[in-house]
Amino acid sequence: MIRTAFFSMLALSIWLYLGAGAHGASHEDHGEHRHEAAKTQDRLDEETNARVDLADVELVDQDGRKVKFASDVVRGRVVVIDLIYTTCPLVCPILSAIFSRLQEQLGDRLGSEVHLVSVTVDPNTDIPPRLKEYAARFDARPGWTFLTGDRQNVAQVLKGLGGYTADLTNHPAMILVGDGGKEGWTRFYGFPSPEQILEKVNEISAARRSMRSHPAK
After folding, report:
1. Is residue 171 pLDDT above 90, yes or no?
2. Residues 58-76: pLDDT tens digits?
3. Domains recognised in the chain with CATH numbers
4. What is the mean predicted confidence (pLDDT) over 176-186?
5. pLDDT of amino acid 183
């Protein structure tokens, strides 16, 4: 279990990184990612509607299993997706900490009703064993999948999600929530709370139950 102190440290890091501390830090201290965090400051939990194109290309999960992104990982499921890379100094660990808290709130729904998906933006570095080690740092349980793979396939997935950048340190801090294979996705920019994400997940789950109870004639 990740301790409360860890999340307190991350909260302090956000304040330092996006507030006064960002202005006095060393230029050598991950300047590019500081720039991304500064861009995120004005929309820490902005929620927008999103259209996604789920590329059905082959990727590899943290256990080395080959999977098709659209048909094996996303389609037919309620999914929450973020973009990370394991050498990221601050933004990605914050996103992963949000996911770690979210999985606790989901409880038994994780892996059965709701799936968490983290896609690396640095497939050259983030081979499966590295992703598995990163996942362990956040106590990732079954139902939280980490994906890497061929660089071109990963780029195709990222483009479809609206998260591709040529410079991985400038990838957008965002979380997508949707019903796999359907329209009506939600994109959160920045660092939404687990409660905000869970509220959207619950809306989708309720809509799915309603459709099963009242199928179209």
Report:
1. no
2. 999 999 999 999 999 999 8
3. 4-22+29-213 (3.40.30.10)
4. 88
5. 77
Cα distance between residue 87 and residue 90, in whole Å = 9
The structure's pTM equals 0.81
- CA distances to 22, 41, 45, 198, 200 from 194, in Å: 25, 18, 11, 6, 10
Contact between residue 47 and residue 186 where contact means Cβ atoms under 8 Å apart:
yes
